[in-house]
Amino acid sequence: MATESTDYRSLIRDIPDFPQAGIMFRDITPLLGDAEAYRASIQALAEPFRGAGIDQVAAIEARGYMLGCPLAVELGAGFVPIRKLGKLPFETFQAEYSLEYGEAVIEIHRDALLAHHRVLLIDDVLATGGTMAAAINLIEQSGATIAGVAVLVELGALGGREALVGQDLFSLITL
Fold first, then answer.
1. How do residues 26-57 score in pLDDT, each as one tens digit?
2. How many angstroms separate the Cα of 99 from the Cα of each of 20, 40, 73, 124, 148?
3. In a 3-state reduction of DSSP, which class is residue 46?
4. Who's near 91: CB < 8 A, 6+ residues apart?
5. pLDDT band at 59, cuts 50/70/90?
6. Known catalytic residue: 63?
7. Are 7 and 34 in contact (CB under 8 A)?
8. Which candidate in 47, 61, 100, 140 is catalytic?
9. Would you say the pTM of this structure is higher than 0.85?
10. CB under 8 Å to 140, separation ≥6 — which residues?
């Protein structure tokens, strides 16, 4: 496993003023395009949760899916998509949240998680914590247990960790 020798930060591209002025977008596509780094990042994200009895990996649309699906396979768990409003075809739980540049709603199928499930929640970037807190709300509405939260990149200066007090949070990279 190449986790200690992999320079993940060098594979995260900063794009200023996207999607709007004043936002520094952290683009993970260079990391995803590097097969060794991608594989190592999935293994490193899985490591703190091996043996934790993870039943389902829930990931937030859309970049979270690029991490969540292989992470679920790595942990021998199922995968649960958390989607933007109106994208799921069945009955849903909903949660509203604020992000750096607007308001949004995410959803999860009502039957996606069961009360006995232990869930690992994953996303690409933790910024202010609004999206992740809303996703935690969805998982709690389902009655499942949140076994942990993981992100590829944590933007420490934005204080997202404070929005997730009480959660077992693992960040592969902190900027």
1. 999 999 999 999 999 999 999 999 999 999 99
2. 13, 29, 30, 15, 22
3. helix
4. 109, 110, 111
5. very high
6. yes
7. no
8. 100
9. yes
10. 146
Alpha carbon of 76 to those of 51, 70, 84, 104, 168: distances in Å? 11, 10, 26, 31, 20
Catalytic, 100? Answer yes
The residue from 63, 74, 154, 161 that is catalytic is 63
Q: Which residue has the tokens 């594989």?
A: 39
The secondary element (H helix, E strand) that includes residue 83 is strand 78-84
Q: Which residue has the tokens 């997202």?
A: 160
Q: What amino acid occupies position 151? A: V
Sign of torsion, CA 97 100 102 107? negative
CA distances from 89 to 95, 112, 136 (A): 16, 12, 21
- How many angstroms from the chain centroid is the CA of residue 128? 13
Domains in the chain (CATH in brackets) are 53-174 (3.40.50.2020)
User: Contact 175/28 with Cβ under 8 angstroms?
Assistant: no
Phi, psi angles (nearest 5°) of residue 61 = -55, 140
Q: Which helix (H) or strand (E) holds 33?
A: helix 29-33
Kindly report the average pLDDT of the chain as a whole number: 94
